[in-house]
Design a protein that fits this description.
- The protein is an alpha/beta fold.
- It has one domain: Oxidized Rhodanese, domain 1.
- Helices cover 40% and strands 12% of the residues.
- The chain has a four-stranded parallel sheet.
- Helix 3 links the parallel strand 3 (78-81) and strand 4 (103-107).
- The protein is globular and about 30 Å long.
- Residues 1-6, 9-26 and 120-124 have low confidence and may be disordered.
Length: 124
């Protein structure tokens, strides 16, 4: 049965996708490593940023991102992350829509934290 013939099936697929995105599923990190020259952007709220953030990250909440694009270096790779991966996915889309071409979704905290030890090791 095709989706065109079954509006109910199409509705189920659409709702499932919305639930998956809202839950932060399916937005896992796209990256295997963080290039040393990357600009790391935490798109969570300032309170979340204060509780823990990736070393060297800047905090630009996703709802302020479009108004603060000049703080970012378009020639560098920009890695965005949040708590679950949902806001970073949105942030990536915002940056791409505004002409940034080197944008990676670092995913959620669990994803980005795995790079903290690797980054410290690489600096030795």
């Amino acid at each position: 049965m095709s989706l065109e013939r079954s509006p109910h099936l199409l509705l189920v697929v659409a709702v499932s996708t919305m639930i998956t995105v809202a839950a932060g599923c399916g937005n896992a990190s796209e990256i295997q490593s963080i290039p040393p020259s990357s600009q790391i952007v935490d798109v969570r709220t300032p309170g979340e940023f204060a509780s823990w953030h990736f070393p060297g990250a800047v905090n630009i909440p996703v709802d302020q991102l479009e108004g603060r694009l000049k703080e970012l270096a378009p020639e560098r790779t920009i890695v965005v992350y949040c708590r679950s991966g949902s806001r970073s996915s949105l942030a990536k889309r915002i940056l791409l829509a505004n002409g940034f071409t080197k944008v990676e979704n670092g995913g959620g905290l669990r994803d980005i934290k795995r790079f903290v030890g690797a980054q410290a090791t690489a600096k030795r």
